[in-house]
Design brief:
About 30% of the residues lie in helices and about 35% in strands. It has helices at about 15-30, 85-95; strands at about 1-10, 35-40, 50, 60, 70-80, 100-105. It starts with a strand and ends in a 6-residue tail after the last strand.
């Protein structure tokens, strides 16, 4: 099963070199153990654009869809046999990137 591990941050700063090294090592481990699907960092919230086309006319606004101290800074998509393994991996990812993470199953992902 696939899981989205969202990295949550509350400061507008890039990870320092020691955290990037820990993240790279964690990524290497995910790949070596067959858990890696995809991962990436995201731009700061002020680089976001929100598009709402629910009424047939696209409304485009700059900035995040919601004002919050915390924001989505990056993510991993991982493969794990069950939620317990995904949570264990997410805890290790949280330690590597020194940020909170949230875990959610990816619905309809190939198993």
């Amino acid at each position: 099963m696939q899981y989205l591990v969202s990295v949550i941050h509350d400061k507008l700063e890039l990870a320092p070199a020691n955290e990037m090294a820990a993240i790279d090592a964690f990524n290497d481990r995910l790949q070596a153990e067959g858990h890696w699907v995809f991962a990436g960092g995201l731009g700061f919230p002020d680089t976001a654009t929100v598009i709402d086309n629910r009424n047939g006319q696209a409304m485009i606004t700059d900035g995040p869809f919601l004002e919050s101290k915390e924001y989505l800074a990056g993510f991993w998509i991982i493969e794990a046999p069950d939620l317990d393994v995904a949570l264990k991996l997410a805890a290790e990812g949280s330690k590597a990137c020194n940020r909170k993470v949230e875990v959610r199953p990816v619905l309809g992902a190939p198993e």
